[in-house]
């Protein structure tokens, strides 16, 4: 028994000794120690615990986003997926866990060689989540304090990409220049080239971008990602007009295991370039017909017709192009991703080539409804659509008033015949609309009566409310015919402008008569001589300016519309020649127009510097209106745009602060000179009306009461939609009351 207890005691003492030894060893494994033992311990623990989990979380998050991301082949593909925090919201838990685990390495394994890698993972994860400052700070820390050059180079590559995402191209290129001088591994060289190519692509330097990308391909293995980069290279070559080189990359796509859609669009672009390289090639013989017959392309036929439309447009065959593009819309089915770009191309053809602004406006409207907000062309389309809305409204006024004024000069008998002709045209169009509606109803009923025919396929017509494509088409057609209308009862008659007659010498109806009859949904049509017919005739007659007062009002509406058309051409649509034509017509038809001095100035600005008539308009303005604001602007030293120069530098806001400071210090003359320069230089800027308001105060200080009132009236005329207008009108009212009191 005594021996047994002695044995137990000796074993216990041995265990205690071993435990003490392990405790001493662990106590010596400090994260701040540089001895081999502690360093090896923390390297092992960091790598196969926190760092491994963080890296796995980040990779899984990136793979999930990459699989979910859908490229828009109508746009230039980004060489790298954008660091959009919205894209990474679905993997936020993985990224947050990666940040948590990477932070453990930074907190508990300071002497580990995986510290730099963990900070890089931390920075990348924060960038994906949109935490830019923290992400950039982590990457900068690796560069500043990192112990391994390869890790520092990796962090700098990601830092370069982060700068590019924030449009800070100067800093991105500074980092690229530093990396270019470093000895990089093969993998680091690949990532550096790809990121630098991405930076230049984002900056719009396509030639530089694709040149760097060419150096990247030998470093890439065959993969779907490499196929995508070949497609992007083809797009970049297309942008710079190198179609043969682009085709080489489009053909390389199929050799790198691409997804089917990518392969299809690469083949499509290759065929398109073949036609561009060989202008004599027939569109139906280069391979498009074969692609249309291929059953695998059933849901991509809209893209094929779209491409054929683009090629027909390039060859100047616009009716053929419109036919292909409309066919693209018809065959789209439920795949509506292509539709906004098809509508956009139709809008461009009607605007640029056919000058059919009403149709262009309708197509821009339709494109904007379904165009993704992140699309490259979205802002441009929105601006063009807004300008065309106002343009078509003013053009409609001009055409309508032209028509009505011609009709007002007809003798009563001829006018009555013309009104009957208009009503007959309305009734005929109503019949055609009813016929189309009945045919559509018959097709829908026939389809509904077929067994199991609810999900129709092929060329069968769907009930409109089941087909998103038909809904989009219907919306576009409604806007084209009726315009933008509020949802309300009796909208066809209650708000319709009745000034809808055409001139006898026009082959197409004007303004509102381009719309179908307003009671197109009626079950019956009117008969000539009936009470309804006579009521409609009276309704149309009331719109004709048969009295002197009505004619004067019609002339005033037309005068203002011509003036606004010219300004829309000049500033919104950026078509100076058409602006000159509109302004010239205004002066010809209304020699005493109140807009005369401003029109002189705008014509002068719109003409080319080499135009021999340009000095004549300047002379007319200086001769007829020597004391006007526009004359003073022309007497200043012109800059490259014909606008008044300035001696003060800086942004409009800084310029305003500088001029206002002169005003508060009492330097009124100098401030007035500066503000008049600024009104011209920042014409069209959001602060223009604010400069103009300050000019009113300065004119009152320098040039007296009459000039002050003139400046107020000038502001009211030039800035009718300014939020400062009520204040200016109050100033005018107060000035009038003061004058009345002095007179009394």
UniProtKB/TrEMBL annotation:
<feature type="signal peptide">
    <location>
        <begin position="1"/>
        <end position="27"/>
    </location>
</feature>
<dbReference type="Pfam" id="PF13174">
    <property type="entry name" value="TPR_6"/>
</dbReference>
<dbReference type="Pfam" id="PF13181">
    <property type="entry name" value="TPR_8"/>
</dbReference>
<feature type="compositionally biased region" description="Polar residues">
    <location>
        <begin position="516"/>
        <end position="528"/>
    </location>
</feature>
<keyword id="KW-0175">Coiled coil</keyword>
<protein>
    <submittedName>
        <fullName>Tetratricopeptide (TPR) repeat protein</fullName>
    </submittedName>
</protein>
<keyword id="KW-0802">TPR repeat</keyword>
<dbReference type="InterPro" id="IPR019734">
    <property type="entry name" value="TPR_rpt"/>
</dbReference>
<dbReference type="InterPro" id="IPR011990">
    <property type="entry name" value="TPR-like_helical_dom_sf"/>
</dbReference>
<keyword id="KW-0732">Signal</keyword>
<feature type="repeat" description="TPR">
    <location>
        <begin position="302"/>
        <end position="335"/>
    </location>
</feature>
<feature type="coiled-coil region">
    <location>
        <begin position="416"/>
        <end position="443"/>
    </location>
</feature>
<feature type="region of interest" description="Disordered">
    <location>
        <begin position="492"/>
        <end position="532"/>
    </location>
</feature>
